[in-house]
Amino acid sequence: MTSDETMTLTTAQAIIRWLANQYIEIDGEEMRLCGGGFGIFGHGNVTCLGEALYNVREELPLYRGQNEQSMGFAAAGYAKQWLRQRFMFCTASAGPGTSNLLTSAALTHANRLPMLLLCGDTFVTRLPDPVLQQMENFYDPTLGVNDAFRPVVRYWDRITHPAQIVQSLPNAIATMLDPADCGPAFLGLPQDVQGWTYDYPAVFFERKVHRIRRQSPDDLEIADALAALSKAQRPMIIAGGGVQYSRAVDELTAFAETHRIPVVETIAGRANMLATHPLNIGPVGVTGSNSANAIAEKADVILAVGTRLQDFTTGSWTAFAKEAQIVSINAARHDAGKHRSLPVVGDAKLSLEKLGEALDYRAPDDWVSFARDQRKTWDAYVADNVSHDGNRPNSYAQAIGVVNDLCDSRDRIVAAAGGLPAEVTANWRTLATGTVDVEFGFSCMGYEISGAWGARIAQSEREPERDTIVFIGDGSYMMLNSDIYSSVLSRKKLIVLVLDNGGFAVINKLQNNTGNESFNNLLEHCPTIPEPFAVDFEAHATSQGAIAETVSNPAELGEAFERAQQSDRTHVIVMKVDPYEGWTTEGHAWWEVGTPHITESESVRKAHLETEANRSKQRRGV
Questions:
Q1: Rounded to the nearest 10 degrees, what angle do helices 249-259 and 348-358 cross at?
Q2: Name one GO molecular function term (predicted).
Q3: Helix (H, G, I), strand (E, B), or coil: what is residue 310?
Q4: What pLDDT score does 1 carry?
């Protein structure tokens, strides 16, 4: 093919043809970089983009979503399952269809996940303006709904001429595949421009194989890290989600074992090490474990690997000693330098290898013994917490324990927002690495079922025999449940556990813990609801085509779960849990929340003073 050959295509046809010819090499195998897409058609994407997608429906399968926001969540779940090595696109019509994707764009941005947004836009010519669903801006006619995506994506462009995609598409892909800048990319596609033609260079559509860059760390930064670690008396490793995205689990484990350094995990890094590993001291932070938090507050050197050190990890920066030195390995410069860290900007796998080769050091025996003893005590607490032999009320922890005992080690666990992230993080015993997805980067209720559907699509491409298991509360279920229907339609089976506590129970708990009266969280405390009643979740799930059943206790839950494992389609299990009793009460670090400085309530005033009393432990950093 010569460089002067051209192909006459519409903008939409060119975008889709180019996407279909992008590949990535994973473990020596080449496969399409884009696994397909999620789409809801309307004016703004059906006539032109829809026409182009029809012609590649085998190469780029299009899953029809039920809600644009949930499509974005599904794309995030897909990207997580593929460890950011592959992505899905989402397409939505102009106006509200596109604006519904704002929340999922923010979720993928916060979690540093790739997703391509191909969204309808108003006409470039403005000849028919104002069109249906157009947001008119009186002082700037170029400003529209799609501009709202600028703060929540890593790459943004509005295509106003067909030739622009020759530059824009490669830039979007480069952003999504960059370990440091990974996040969603947005292309606004005006309705008229989608159908305009252009003589594209034929070489633009040649097959291209991508590889994700591994950035080597700087020798001087490695030297600084070595100097700090070599002097450590009480070292600790924080393992974040970036360890998995770097495919550095083995290197992390080898580094910890060689130098006998205890490891704690963030929420995103929750399945970096097996629960049985002797150096896995547990999850750290606000939703952590007594064991991890006990060593965190004593550690003098902290090696943070692939974590952005958000407040649930750091206990709003009270979990660590003020004088502790942090050494941060991260592909992103922004994250590597937080809180006076010694930065090692580079790939986690390469950085751990380079640091490990040069480090002649083993942590003191008494420190390692202290950490292991703390973990043994925590394991005993969890074992009791998840047990259900006595007369304790039904709880999240008990449901987690039942599933943990019965699931396959490679099954994927999905939870998000509400009370379940804390309960899963604290109580789940990791059976295999990379099998837990607790969406707490954006803490987005409604992610659970949709994210699991996307994960199941990806999982079926790699491990089709494994299950994807969803833990979801009734509050999140009511927010976004329609991808139960999507999973049945697409034959991507999920096992969904709906744990019903009568509203937003974890926020009610936060409300009470800060001295406030229960108000507007549990249904029984909503003054605008004269007669609360329970939703029949079993009937609702059945109406979407799922198999569903309701159980009364954890023992029945176990029996139902075994039936769900044998089901040929999505299986929903409903169990009521107590909104007040049965919470995991141990393992929590301090978390800063805003409390009233003046109040007429004595209980609120007292809680405010108790909250402020912990502020003295807070590290002051940047």
A1: 20
A2: magnesium ion binding
A3: coil
A4: 58
Q: How far is CA 404 from CA 383, 448, 501, 561, in A?
A: 11, 18, 21, 11
The position carrying tokens 């790699």 is: 462
Return phi, psi of residue 151, to 5°: -75, -15
Phi, psi of 11 (to 5 degrees): -55, -45
Residue 339: per-residue pLDDT: 86
User: What is the predicted pLDDT for the residue at 15?
Assistant: 98
Residues 479-494 have pLDDT tens digits of: 999 999 999 999 999 9
- Contact status, residue 295 vs residue 235, Cβ threshold 8 Å: no
Domains of the chain, by residue range, sit at 6-210, 219-377, 387-576, 593-622
What is the three-state SS of 88-146? EEEEECCCHHHHCCHHHHHHHHHCCCCEEEEEEECCCCCCCCCCCCCCCCCCCCCCCHH
DSSP state of 503: B
pLDDT at 273: 97
Write out residues in the chain with pLDDT < 50, as ranges: none
Give the pLDDT confidence score for residue 391 in this predicted structure: 84
Give the tens place of pLDDT for each residue, 425-446: 999 999 999 999 999 999 999 9
CATH topology of domain 387-576: Rossmann fold (3.40.50)
Tell me, yes or no, if the pTM score tops 0.90: yes
Q: Tell me, what DSSP letter sits at residue 298?
A: T
Neighbouring-strand partners of residue 6: 201
Compute the Cα dihedral for 481, 486, 487, 489 and give only its sign.
positive
Q: What does the DSSP assignment read for 548-584?
A: EEEESSHHHHHHHHHHHHH-SS-EEEEEE--SSS---
Would you tell me how many other CB atoms lie within 10 Å of the CB of residue 32?
Answer: 15
Helix axes 554-566 and 396-406, enclosed angle (nearest 10): 40
Locate all alpha helices (DSSP H) within 409-567, ordered by sequence: 420-427, 447-462, 474-479, 483-489, 505-513, 537-543, 554-566
Fold that domain 6-210 belongs to in CATH: Rossmann fold (3.40.50)
Question: Is residue 222 a contact partner of residue 344, using CB atoms and an 8 Å limit?
Answer: yes
Name the region of 417 (left: φ>0; alpha: ψ -120 to 50; beta: rest): left
**Scanning the structure block, which residue is given the tokens 């390692």?**
368
What is the structure's pLDDT at 390? 78
Residue 475, token pair as written in the block: 């509050």
Domains 219-377 and 387-576 alike in fold: yes
Q: What is the pLDDT of residue 620?
A: 81
Contacts of 384 by beta carbon, 8 Å cutoff, 6+ apart: none
CATH of 219-377, one of 3.40.50.1220, 2.60.40.3760, 3.40.50.720, 3.40.50.300: 3.40.50.1220
